[in-house]
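Researcher: I'd like a candidate sequence for this fold, 184 residues long. If you have to choose between options at a position, lean toward the conservative one.
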């Protein structure tokens, strides 16, 4: 299979991409098990794209059970160059309204139960990776311009808070996250 330029991980609410043409379903096995689902590979305006439903089609995998490493490793095996992850999230700041696009510049990880499975390293492989700028600014520029073309209100920057799930935060927790400067 020829390399695929763009990989899209669809979170809650995004389980398919009907705009893809010439589609094929691709099953990928990894040393970390199977990804969340088979990849749907097709073309979007002449660009080869692979789509993966983060929770599996039909939303069958809980956030704490997602095979993160298998998903990313499979994308690497497919030769994917750019990864976009799209999710429905809750807003912690008034300026972020439903249907707005937020392109965060930082992440804050509040997960604990999946710590052992959140890295490709360990078990004899020692690596230190900078995460000071976790979002590709060039890809963010492209996404922001694309949103402008279709009149989607876009916010650039901000911090994405990743929670353990599947529960959402209490009102008290959300207030603390706001005071910390978290955005979504």
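Model: Candidate sequence:
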């Amino acid at each position: 299979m020829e390399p695929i330029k763009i990989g899209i991980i669809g979170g809650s609410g995004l389980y398919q991409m009907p705009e893809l043409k010439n589609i094929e379903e691709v099953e990928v096995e990894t040393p970390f098990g199977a990804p969340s689902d088979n990849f749907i590979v097709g073309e979007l305006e002449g660009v080869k794209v692979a789509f993966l439903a983060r929770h599996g089609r039909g939303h069958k995998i809980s956030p704490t059970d997602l095979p993160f490493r298998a998903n990313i490793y499979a994308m690497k095996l497919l030769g994917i160059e750019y990864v976009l992850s799209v999710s429905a999230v809750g807003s912690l700041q008034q300026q972020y309204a439903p249907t707005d696009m937020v392109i965060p510049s930082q992440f804050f990880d509040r997960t604990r139960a999946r710590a052992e499975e959140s890295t490709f390293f360990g078990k004899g492989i020692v690596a230190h990776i900078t995460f000071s700028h976790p979002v590709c600014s060039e890809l963010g520029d492209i996404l922001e311009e694309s949103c402008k073309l279709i009149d989607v209100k876009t916010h650039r920057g901000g911090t994405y808070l990743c929670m353990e799930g599947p529960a959402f935060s209490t009102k008290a927790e959300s207030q603390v996250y706001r005071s910390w400067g978290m955005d979504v």
